[in-house]
Amino acid sequence: MASDTVLFDYWRSSASYRVRIALNMLAIPYRSVPVDLLASQHKQAAHLERNPQGLVPVLAIDDEMLTQSLAIIEYLSETRPNAGLLPSDALGRQRVRALSYAIAMDIHPICNLSVVSHVMQQSDDPNAARLAWMGKFIREGLGAFERMLKAPESGEFCHADQPTMADLCLVPQFYNARRWNVDLSAFPRATAIAEKCERLPAFAAAHPDRAAASNSSAN
């Protein structure tokens, strides 16, 4: 039987990946409806009705259509008891938001599909231009994130000793970094945290390869 909760997503989308992890962590059953970005399905009228920005993910939950991955995660944190995606104290929430924004607002937008496609169009060697662009901004962004993790509030995870919204942002960014052959050796603490998260069932089940396989079997 179909779930009342529907996630409109794309398997490789970092933003969708974050929300899949959150839904898994909170044990919220959902049905995934793929929106193929490469086929421009996000620009079609049906999807623009769900999200006027034409972006993924869109989460249909609680009789609402929610957009923007971090806003979705915060909504889930506020409406589900003991969610734990944000700390209980104001300073802790501020720090987790700062870590999350460092990835979701500073690295991700520069490296998304529309920006990189435009960069490739300006070059005589599009693939080399894409790799150079991705490498530069992912390395610089993760370098800043690694320095942020030196704060004493970091623990086994980005903040203290349980995954928060910050970890939900870090893991998809590491997936992209590996995809674009970024050397991660300069980020040992972030790497250790990401690898610890990736071993957790909620994160593993949200991995793009699992999402792609699930979407294929549903079609």
UniProtKB/TrEMBL annotation:
Q: Name one GO biological process term.
A: glutathione metabolic process
EC annotation from Swiss-Prot or TrEMBL: 5.2.1.2
Q: Which Gene3D superfamilies match?
A: 1.20.1050.10, Glutaredoxin
Q: Name one GO cellular component term.
A: cytoplasm
Q: What is this protein called?
A: Maleylacetoacetate isomerase
Classify the source by domain of life. Bacteria
Tell me the classification of the organism that encodes this protein: Bacteria, Pseudomonadati, Pseudomonadota, Alphaproteobacteria, Hyphomicrobiales
Keywords attached to this Swiss-Prot or TrEMBL record, sorted alphabetically, are: Isomerase, Plasmid
Q: Which family does it belong to?
A: Belongs to the GST superfamily. Zeta family.
Output the PROSITE patterns linked to this UniProt entry: GST_CTER, GST_NTER
Per the UniProt entry, what species is this protein from, by scientific name? Rhizobium gallicum bv. gallicum R602sp
Q: Where is the GST N-terminal domain?
A: 3-84
CDD domains in alphabetical order: GST_C_Zeta, GST_N_Zeta
